[in-house]
């Protein structure tokens, strides 16, 4: 018998090679030929099956080749090999189960589940076999039957197992589904709980795709165990018995009869095997089977559903003339039409479509559905180069449209008749329809029914997901059915993931299309079964989940190459995406109001996109299997972008600002609910810390040597470290991401504003000087420069508007402020575990863990506050601000805890910019700072100390830096002085002596330098302006000299403005202090210097050369000579006493009687002071003149003093000699004045303090005796 079967099959193969088989079958209608052959083969012993199975597979391959001659030209062995490639593991199972089941259709390929092979009582479930009648089957219009579908076994009656990988919903992994009994097959969707369990059992049976004797023998033995080889009578008997049992159960358990169930199936699937109609798809093959033997068509409803769906899909696959979906158009309301979010989805029509039913045919269901998608889709416009939002016009799309709408019809039916659908059998039936639709969708997506799709191709399902057209639960069901078979799951969902990534790369915030790929990915990642998120597992298994760096630009690499990089890369910044600025912030119609509204809309877009990004990453972190991979990816983003924090960095080597801010937003959400008690502050020193913190990173207090020593000691005992927990890792990832995202963005924003100001100034200068250069040879060059500047200015203004959206988002800034508040709490707990009950001063012994922290932990807080106060001060009205105030006060008052004085200066600058005199909108913050319990007693002394300490910072720019810092402190002092709570502290400092004396000395130094420099610059400005007024003389100057003078004028104007602002503040501080306290200013080491400074500046304002200070628009530079004269003369009057009068008289460089007379004249003429004040000043002048006369006599008396009585530095007579450690003797007042500026011995530069000075009483007595002698010998 085996030999006879082999001969018959060989003859059929030969006929197929000659291209006669299909034509013969069509003309003769002799499908029964193969049927009888296979029925005979089913009785053959299994030992001969190996050869026969190979031949049957060859025959099936021939039947599938309707257009190609490829299969006709191969030898027998090559045919078998090609069959294996075409149908993958189909060859392994096809013949085995076709012999086992006599009358099954190929439609059962997608239905059913496998039971465990160890269950001997279960019999494989197969599709009902349909014996094809001898004559031709009636077509939809009485035409001849259509060509045989790819899986020709269906039409030929081959009993192919329903789980054949070629057409299984689980794809090509070789998993057989249908090895359950009829009762077992319906259990797949009986309930969510057992369906998942059953699915897991069936999907675990992954098998090889190769056909080899061993695998065939294993499969044959399995069939033998399952009693699959039976004669025809036995199987018919089993089928009838099973069918009767099903009918009894239906009649006893439900009021829904079998006929009603069939009607419901036909209604939902919109099919019929009884009659043809324009509203349904007629199924000729199933009609023939029902006509011939209705009882044997199906074993249960799920079997029937599978047969229906497979026949519909096969008809669509093989139809060349008639579209099986054409009859649905009349009443079809495609799901796409109701759910598409946009109106710009396009339908891609292949150029070689020809007469395909997918062409623009009004009677085609496929065309109708896609037309509705084109009208209501949610994708790119039709002129876009991208096809990510378009639905491809192909046969697979027709199938998907049908299956998706049938899936949705189940839900519609449930909503229409909830009571009926709640009945157990009806609910089970609807569940079967859903699962069968999904199973067949899986087949379509794998290309099993048409052509296998390349993994690099975008999934056909992606456009539906982007357009939001899929019914509720569709994707979840697809994941549920496929995720337990890894290979199939990857085959279906990797193209989907790639398609979403490609789609989002072509999106921008210039439309709302960006949200669809993000929402689709977020929904995929949210799907979970038990504690497992299958899509999260798949995403993190991708090769490009976290690619290793290949070049120095690893930051930009991970953004461009990693899978999530495309999603996080969405940005509104002009540097990242010019489309946003070009669309929303260009054109003459842009107004402030329009810009505000557009900015709010774009910020809403950003919030929406970031929300979906959070969902994605959050679900990956929730999934236990992927949490570690997610943390590795997050740490890589931080570690690869460390260069982004540098002041000067190549932007091409690091991730973009938009990318990092999106990542920051997600981390902020993850850190929001972290309790500080769960965070380990020593994490960055942990051996398993994911973050890379270089040893060269500047630390708060520790030097590099101290850091290395402490870390070595720390790592000697690994037991000191506990396993890092997620809250700790997430917290520090967020902290470091702030350092690499918001802060670089703020710096770039400030640089852009500076560039805009410079360009504006250049444009204004070119415009204002146009009369000078328009007729010159350089006119064309200047015009071109003006044009370039204007163009660049427009680009920068547009970029600023985009940055306003991305960076000045109040919600983002508030979250940053809240997080920094948490960081502050952590740091304060490290320095004082009693926090929030912290007290000052702090412990002199600085904790090593605090000393070793990176400096940017505190610096970033200060920089962020400076930015917020300047550009978004309303953000400071948050409950967390109290912690920030405490933080500022504690570290300004604990300067020994921070090694870098410029870091303290930044904290002081925060107090300065929040001062109401600088930023009125931060008055509440300033009041909180002034009234803080710690600041009332500690802030003034600390600021006064820092005012003097900043004289020497160690930086090359320390000389100029100190003026700005002291200006900030002076402004703060003025504000604090107005607060009564601080008066007591000020008076204590005024009377304490040394600290306040040093402060006054620095104040004198600064005032002297600043007034001198600012007044000198005004003189130069006056000189150039006078030259330019004389046009004739100016035009005679060479052009190079003119340009040089103009350049010098611009520089002097800038210097004058800066120095005058600083000088005015210091003079005002003098004015306030001398009004409250006079004694410290009259000390021997201070009084003469203060008087000399005041005399010099009076000479500048009222002396012979005061006319040189007259400039055009003096208010432009902040020069107010009347106010300055008023304040200087007030200081004279507030210090009026004999000692101060003597100090004035001792100044021989600037003082003169004529000067004071001129001052009195100007004050009286300009009405600067009242007559009473002028009289007081006149009396002071008379006192000074008397002392001057006495000084002249003293000079005559003491002019011949011995050298040992004179100070070696100043060459003046000593009155209180002291000995230095070096052995030199100096006058006390002179050395103390020197120590105020430099605490060193002036002779050897060794450290020197006042306590190291020793009085020389013997020498002092000799000096005074000599002076008395001189006075006694004076002629009367």
TrEMBL record:
Give the signal peptide, or none.
none
Keyword annotations: Acetylation, Cytoplasm, Nucleus, Phosphoprotein, Transferase, Ubl conjugation pathway
Task: Provide the protein's localization.
Answer: Cytoplasm; Nucleus
Report biased composition (Low complexity) as residue ranges. 108-129, 140-155, 179-202, 1039-1050
Describe the function of this protein.
Answer: Ubiquitin-protein ligase that probably functions as an E3 ligase in conjunction with specific E1 and E2 ligases. May also function as an E4 ligase mediating the assembly of polyubiquitin chains on substrates ubiquitinated by another E3 ubiquitin ligase. May regulate myosin assembly in striated muscles together with STUB1 and VCP/p97 by targeting myosin chaperone UNC45B for proteasomal degradation.
Question: To which protein family does this belong?
Answer: Belongs to the ubiquitin conjugation factor E4 family.
Spell out the protein name for this chain: Ubiquitin conjugation factor E4 B
According to its UniProt entry, this protein's organism is Amphiprion percula
């Amino acid at each position: 018998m085996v030999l006879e079967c082999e001969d018959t099959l060989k003859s059929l193969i030969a006929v197929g090679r000659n291209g006669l088989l299909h034509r013969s079958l069509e003309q003769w209608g002799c499908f029964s030929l193969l049927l009888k052959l296979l029925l005979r083969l089913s009785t053959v012993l299994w030992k001969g099956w190996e050869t026969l199975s190979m031949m049957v597979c060859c025959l099936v391959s021939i039947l599938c080749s309707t257009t190609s001659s490829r299969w006709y030209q191969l030898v027998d062995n090559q045919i078998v090999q090609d069959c294996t490639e075409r149908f993958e593991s189909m060859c392994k199972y096809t013949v085995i189960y076709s012999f086992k089941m006599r009358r099954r259709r190929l439609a059962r390929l997608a239905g059913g589940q496998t039971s465990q092979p160890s269950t001997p009582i279960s019999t494989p479930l197969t599709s009902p076999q349909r014996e094809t009648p001898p004559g031709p089957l009636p077509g939809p219009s009485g035409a001849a039957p259509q060509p045989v579908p790819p899986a020709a076994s269906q039409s030929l009656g081959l009993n192919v197992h329903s789980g054949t990988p070629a057409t299984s919903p689980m794809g090509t992994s070789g998993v057989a589904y249908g090895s359950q009994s009829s009762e077992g097959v319906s259990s797949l969707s009986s309930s969510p709980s057992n369906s998942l369990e059953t699915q897991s059992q069936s999907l675990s049976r992954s098998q090889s795709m190769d056909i080899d004797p061993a695998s065939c023998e294993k499969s044959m033995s399995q069939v033998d165990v399952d009693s699959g080889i039976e004669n025809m009578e036995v199987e018919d008997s089993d089928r009838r018995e099973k069918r009767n049992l099903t009918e009894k159960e239906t009649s006893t358990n439900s009021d829904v009869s079998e006929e009603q169930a069939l009607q419901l199936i036909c209604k939902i699937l919109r099919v019929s095997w009884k009659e043809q109609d324009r509203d349904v798809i007629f199924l000729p093959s199933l009609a023939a089977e029902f006509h011939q033997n209705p009882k044997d068509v199906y074993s249960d409803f799920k079997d029937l559903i599978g047969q229906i769906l497979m026949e519909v899909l096969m008809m669509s696959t093989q139809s060349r003339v008639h579209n099986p979906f054409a009859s649905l158009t009349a009443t079809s309301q495609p799901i796409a039409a109701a759910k598409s979010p946009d109106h710009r989805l396009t339908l891609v029509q292949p150029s070689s479509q020809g007469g395909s039913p997918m062409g623009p045919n009004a009677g085609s269901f496929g065309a109708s559905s896609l037309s509705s998608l084109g009208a209501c889709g949610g994708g790119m416009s039709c002129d876009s180069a991208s096809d990510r939002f378009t639905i491809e016009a192909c046969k697979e799309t027709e199938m998907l449209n049908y299956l998706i709408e049938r899936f949705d019809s189940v839900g519609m039916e449930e909503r229409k008749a909830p009571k009926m659908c709640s009945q157990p059998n009806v609910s089970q039936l609807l569940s079967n329809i859903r699962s069968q639709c999904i199973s067949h969708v899986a087949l379509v997506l794998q290309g099993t029914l048409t052509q296998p799709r390349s993994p690099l191709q975008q999934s056909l399902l992606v456009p539906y997901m982007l357009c939001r057209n899929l019914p509720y639960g569709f994707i979840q069901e697809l994941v549920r059915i496929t995720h337990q078979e890894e290979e199939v799951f990857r085959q279906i969902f990797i193209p989907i993931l790639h398609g979403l990534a490609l789609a989002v790369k072509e999106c921008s915030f210039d439309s709302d299309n960006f949200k669809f790929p993000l929402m689709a990915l977020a929904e995929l990642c949210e799907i979970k079964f038990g504690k497992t998120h299958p899509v999260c597992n798949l995403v993190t298994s991708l090769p490009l989940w976290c690619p290793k760096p290949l070049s120095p630009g690893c930051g930009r690499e991970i953004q461009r190459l990693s899978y999530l990089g495309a999603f996080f890369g969405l940005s509104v910044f002009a540097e990242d995406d010019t489309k946003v600025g070009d669309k929303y912030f260009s054109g003459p119609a842009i107004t402030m109001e329009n810009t505000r509204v557009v900015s709010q809309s774009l910020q809403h877009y950003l919030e929406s996109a970031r929300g979906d990004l959070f969902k994605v990453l959050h679900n990956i972190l929730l999934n236990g299997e992927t949490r570690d991979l997610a943390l590795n990816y997050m740490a890589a983003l931080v570690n690869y972008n460390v260069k982004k924090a540098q002041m000067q960095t190549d932007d091409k080597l690091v991730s973009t600002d938009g990318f990092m801010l999106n990542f920051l937003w997600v981390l902020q959400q993850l850190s929001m609910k972290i309790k500080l008690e769960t965070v380990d502050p020593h994490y960055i020193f942990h051996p398993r810390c994911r973050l890379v913190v270089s040893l060269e990173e500047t630390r708060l207090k520790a030097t590099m040597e101290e850091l290395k020593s402490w870390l070595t000691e720390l790592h000697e005992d690994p037991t000191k470290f506990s396993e890092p927990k997620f809250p700790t890792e997430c917290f520090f990832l967020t902290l470091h991401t702030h350092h690499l995202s918001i802060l670089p963005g703020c710096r770039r924003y400030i640089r852009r504003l500076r560039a805009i100001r410079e360009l504006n100034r250049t444009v204004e200068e070119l415009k204002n000087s146009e009369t000078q250069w328009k007729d010159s040879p350089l006119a064309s060059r200047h015009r071109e420069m003006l044009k370039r500047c204007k163009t660049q200015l427009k680009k920068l203004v547009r970029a600023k508007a985009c940055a306003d959206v991305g960076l000045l988002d109040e919600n983002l800034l508030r979250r940053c402020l809240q997080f920094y508040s948490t960081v502050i709490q952590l740091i304060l707990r490290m320095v004082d575990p009693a926090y929030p009950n912290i007290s000052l001063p702090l412990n002199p012994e600085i904790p090593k863990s605090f000393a070793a922290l990176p400096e940017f932990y505190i610096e970033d807080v200060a920089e962020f506050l400076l930015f917020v106060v300047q550009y978004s001060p309303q953000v400071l009205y948050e409950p967390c601000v109290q912690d920030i105030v405490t933080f500022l006060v504690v570290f300004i008052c604990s300067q020994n805890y921070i090694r870098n004085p410029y870091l303290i200066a930044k904290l002081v600058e925060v107090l300065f910019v929040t001062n109401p005199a600088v930023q009125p909108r931060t008055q509440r913050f300033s009041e909180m700072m002034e009234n803080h319990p710690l600041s009332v007693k500690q802030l003034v002394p600390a600021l006064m100390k820092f005012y003097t300490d900043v004289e020497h910072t160690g930086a090359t720019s320390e000389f100029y830096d100190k003026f700005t810092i002291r200006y900030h402190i002076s402004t703060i002092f003025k504000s604090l002085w107005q607060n009564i709570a601080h008066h007591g502290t000020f008076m204590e400092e005024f009377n304490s002596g040394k600290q306040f004396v040093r402060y006054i000395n620095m104040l004198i130094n600064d005032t002297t330098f600043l007034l001198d420099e600012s007044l000198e610059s005004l003189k130069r400005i006056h000189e150039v302006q006078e030259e330019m007024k004389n046009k004739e003389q100016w035009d005679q100057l060479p052009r190079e000299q003119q340009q040089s003078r103009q350049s010098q004028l611009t520089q002097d104007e800038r210097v004058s403005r800066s120095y005058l602002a600083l000088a005015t503040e210091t003079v005002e501080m003098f004015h306030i202090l001398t009004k409250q306290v006079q004694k410290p200013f009259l000390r021997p080491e201070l009084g003469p210097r203060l008087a000399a400074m005041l005399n010099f500046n009076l000479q500048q304002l009222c002396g012979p050369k005061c006319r040189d200070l007259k400039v055009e628009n003096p208010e432009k530079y902040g020069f107010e000579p009347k106010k300055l004269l008023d304040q200087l003369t007030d200081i004279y009057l507030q210090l009026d006493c004999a000692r101060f009068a003597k100090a004035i008289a001792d100044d021989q460089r600037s003082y003169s009687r004529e000067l004071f007379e001129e001052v009195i004249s100007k004050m009286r003429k300009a009405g600067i002071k009242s007559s009473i004040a002028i009289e007081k000043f006149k009396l002071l002048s008379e006192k000074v003149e008397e002392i001057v006369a006495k000084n002249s006599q003293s000079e005559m008396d003491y002019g011949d003093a011995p050298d040992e009585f004179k100070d070696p530095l100043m060459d003046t007579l000593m009155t209180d000699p002291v000995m230095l450690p070096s052995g030199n003797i100096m006058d006390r007042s002179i050395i103390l004045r020197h120590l105020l500026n430099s605490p060193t011995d002036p002779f050897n530069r060794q450290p020197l303090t006042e306590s190291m000075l020793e009085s020389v009483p013997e020498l002092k007595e000799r000096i005074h005796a000599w002076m008395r002698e001189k006075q006694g010998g004076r002629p009367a």
